[in-house]
Amino acid sequence: MANLLAVKSHPLNGENSKSMKIFEEFLKAYQESHPNDSIEIVDLYR
Q1: In sequence order, what are the residues at sequence separation of 6 or more whose Cβ sits closer than 8 angstroms to the Cβ of residue 41?
Q2: Spatial distance between the Cα atoms of 28 and 44, rounded to a whole number of angstroms
Q3: Contact criterion met (CB below 8 Å) for 43 and 26
Q4: Residues 2 and 11 sit within 8 Å (Cβ to Cβ)
Q5: How far apart (Å, rounded) are the C-alpha atoms in residues 6 and 4?
Q6: What does the angle CA 36 – CA 22 – CA 19 come to, to the nearest 5 degrees?
Q7: Phi/psi at 38 (nearest 5 deg)?
Q8: Could you read off the pLDDT of 2-41 as tens digits, one per residue?
Q9: SS3 label, residue 44
Q10: Do 40 and 2 contact (CB within 8 A), yes or no?
């Protein structure tokens, strides 16, 4: 089991930003490929 730290620093979501759409899709694909890994998302914008 591994830990993934995902740092988000963007005010928009995946519906309004192409880069955030890629971020969200990456996290979804990673979680599907590594179901036992832990993902921590740090939102620097908020």
Answers
A1: 6, 7, 8, 27
A2: 20
A3: no
A4: no
A5: 6
A6: 135
A7: -100, 135
A8: 999 999 998 988 789 999 999 999 999 999 999 999 999 9
A9: coil
A10: no
Which tokens hold the place of 34?
A: 């590594």
Judging by DSSP bridges, how do beta strands 38-43 and 3-8 pair with one another?
Answer: parallel
Distance CA 29, CA 6 (A): 13
pLDDT band at 43, cuts 50/70/90? Answer: very high
| 34 contacts 6 by C-beta, under 8 angstroms | no
- The confidence score (pLDDT) of residue 12 equals 85
Locate all alpha helices (DSSP H) within the chain, ordered by sequence: 18-33
